[in-house]
Amino acid sequence: MVGLHKRLAMVVGMLVAVAACNNAKPSSRAGTTPDAAATDTAAAPPTVPAAAAPATPAASARARIVFLGDSLTAGYGLARHQSVPALIQARLDREGLDYEVVNAGVSGDTSAGGLSRLEWSLDGMVRVLVVELGGNDGLRGLPVAAMKDNLDAIIRRAKARGITVLLTGMEAPPNYGQAYTVEFRTAFLDLAKAHGVAFVPFYLEGVAGNPELNIADGIHPNPDGARIVEQTIWRALQPLLAADHGPGGGGR
After folding, report:
1. Which of 35, 109, 137, 217 is catalytic?
2. Which residue in 107, 111, 220, 244 is the catalytic one?
3. Is 217 designated active site?
4. Which positions ≥6 away from 12 have C-beta within 8 Å?
5. Active-site residue, selected from the candidate residues 70, 71, 109, 111
6. What is the mean pLDDT of residues 122-150?
7. Which residues contact residue 187 at a Cβ distance below 8 angstroms, ignoring those fewer than 6 apart?
8. Cα(146)–Cα(243) distance, rounded to whole angstroms?
């Protein structure tokens, strides 16, 4: 986990990129398939048009791992197979673990948006829910208490169904003041402790702020950056799968 000053430097860079995105529409690059929705910017609307939302997962008899998140999960600026959920699916297949990964990422989504679509996101035999939300709450300076309540509800509802939860943290831009950034960061840790769920303190660990690991907007990982995030998530996810012996589970 990087130090506080380095983290703040990272999010300062992210904030500058956000400002740039407000003045220029992102363009598609050869070999990539950007998400149809807006990127995660402070000017992005709180709600995402229905057309931008992922399709409801079809019924499946396989045990599922659902990634509930925003554009970082959706894989903005990447080909479908380069997104973090797709990379996790490829690793599972290589290791002979019979899980189906569902990418329930929507660009521009806040914690409130994730909560609003939780029920249909959990269709099927879901064994693990990876929660990657809150980044847009922080970029927009939304109340931390509201974000925390939304994430709390997501975790509670998932656990009530017997679903294992992996929570990932995010950093808020420092322009809202130190009190906000500390409260924001602490909210994720408090939730992980309160619910006893697996926790990745910073989803973009080792990637944020590095131009070589992000696409032109400076916010979203490029293919190399996505592979680093996939490794970070896998280190936390793999023990959960090893312990998964529930009905239909693909754990060993």
Report:
1. 217
2. 220
3. yes
4. 173, 174
5. 71
6. 97
7. 134, 144, 147, 148, 151
8. 32
Residues 22 and 36: their CA atoms lie apart, in Å, by: 16
Is it the case that residue 181 has pLDDT exceeding 90?
A: yes
Bridge-based pairing of strands 63-69 and 99-105 is parallel
Place of tokens 């509930």: 68
- Spacing of C-alpha 190 from chain mean position: 18
Give the domains, in start order, of the chain with CATH numbers: 4-242 (3.40.50.1110)
pLDDT value at 248 more than 50: no
User: Confidence band (pLDDT; 50, 70, 90) for 40?
Assistant: very low
Cα angle 123, 116, 80 (rounded to 5 degrees) comes to: 60
Q: Is 60 a catalytic residue?
A: no
Residues in Cβ contact with 96 at an 8 Å cutoff, skipping those fewer than 6 apart: none
- Predicted pLDDT at 58: 53
Residue 220 and residue 52: Cα distance in Å, rounded? Answer: 18
Strands lying side by side in the sheet with 99-105 = 99-105, 63-69, 126-132, 164-168, 198-200
152 is catalytic: no
* End-to-end CA separation in angstroms for the chain: 29
How far is residue 170's CA from residue 59's CA, in Å, rounded to a whole number?
32
* C-alpha dist (Å) from residue 143 to 18, 59, 172, 239: 19, 36, 12, 33
Instruction: Give me the half-sphere count of Cα atoms (radius 13 Å) on the Cβ side of residue 90.
Output: 11
